[in-house]
Amino acid sequence: MGSIILFVFLLLVASNGVLSKGNMTKEISFHQNYKVIWGDNYVLSSNQGKEVQLKMDNSSGSGFGSKMTYVSGLFHMRIKLPNKNSAGVVTAYYLTSEGKMHDELDFEFLGNRDGKPYRLQTNIFADGQGNREQRIKLWFDPRADFHTYQILWNQHQIVFYVDNTPIRVYKNKSNIGVGYPSRPMQIQASLWDGDSWATNGGKTKTNWKYAPFKANFQGFDVSGCQVLSSSNSQNCFSEKHWWNSPKFWQLSPSQHRQYEHVKHKYMTYDYCTDRIRYPQPPLECL
Ligand SMILES: *[C@@H]1O[C@H](CO)[C@@H](O)[C@H](O)[C@H]1NC(C)=O
Ligand SMILES: *[C@@H]1O[C@H](CO)[C@@H](O)[C@H](O)[C@H]1NC(C)=O
Ligand SMILES: *[C@@H]1O[C@H](CO)[C@@H](O)[C@H](O)[C@H]1NC(C)=O
């Protein structure tokens, strides 16, 4: 009986496919792959480094980053957001390269007044150019529990996932001149004061009465192709890395349906349809 249940479970995991791998790897310590990069005294690790808390008050925020840089991967983090009136507070999980022509893939959780839901903003920079914001409402309370946020990056597509649901897809359309991230990127997470823009377009300010704000992180293993310099990054597109295999070149039909559902039901802003900002839709939106 037990083995039948296990078998069915494995089948489910296998057919669900995509994200099972990242999620089934073992727990490793923060310090193995990450280091504190901002606000030393505001980063607290617990449970043998398997969990890390970032803190922000009126004198500092905090952040951490991966020790290595990566080209391609399926990056993941489990995050629990500040559980208070968090207007103005931004919790971010992202990949970024350095320099002016930088690439960047962002999850930005925009805090809100008590009782009002968080908004999740994503953005994509390629060759130093961003301005590709999308925002969604979440279908759960991200402060109540940990949820998994993931970024797939291979030569064919970039996909943002919330738990296992794709919420954003950015295809490689470099053949029609659209920028596509290619530079080695560091994984970072941070908690900072974004009250000049994050909530109600900056009209609702951070209420420091509720400080310190705290965000919790888990899941410090990394499924990505490490690079020391850009010279050997071509190997990072090899299909020997599972996230580069054909299965990850496009969404499966069921993922596609989930994605359409999210766009229809939860998307509150999409730069692609903002005709005030872009009278001509950007090329990648066509
Ligand atoms: C792994 O994914 C499954 C199904 O999506 C979920 O129920 C489970 O909580 C996840 N495990 C971890 C450790 O995140
Ligand atoms: C920061 O908060 C502390 C404690 O709430 C308070 O004593 C201090 O005056 C505040 N500092 C600033 C610059 O607002
Ligand atoms: C984008 O796709 C083209 C093929 O159309 C490929 O040559 C290129 O390497 C890809 N770019 C990146 C950064 O993966």
From TrEMBL:
Concerning PTM, the database record says: Contains at least one intrachain disulfide bond essential for its enzymatic activity.
| Start and end residues of each GH16 domain | 18-217
GO CC, alphabetical: apoplast
Q: Does the keyword Zinc apply?
A: no
Against InterPro entries, the record matches this protein to: Beta-glucanase-like (IPR000757), Beta-glucanase/XTH (IPR044791), ConA-like_dom_sf (IPR013320), XET_C (IPR010713), XTH (IPR016455)
TM regions (residue ranges): none
Query: EC number(s) of the enzyme?
Result: 2.4.1.207
- Top EC class, one word: transferase
Q: Which GO terms describe its molecular function?
A: hydrolase activity, hydrolyzing O-glycosyl compounds; xyloglucan:xyloglucosyl transferase activity
Q: What does this protein do?
A: Catalyzes xyloglucan endohydrolysis (XEH) and/or endotransglycosylation (XET). Cleaves and religates xyloglucan polymers, an essential constituent of the primary cell wall, and thereby participates in cell wall construction of growing tissues.
- Which PANTHER family does this chain map to? XYLOGLUCAN ENDOTRANSGLUCOSYLASE/HYDROLASE PROTEIN 8-RELATED (PTHR31062)
Q: What is this protein called?
A: Xyloglucan endotransglucosylase/hydrolase
Species: Lupinus luteus
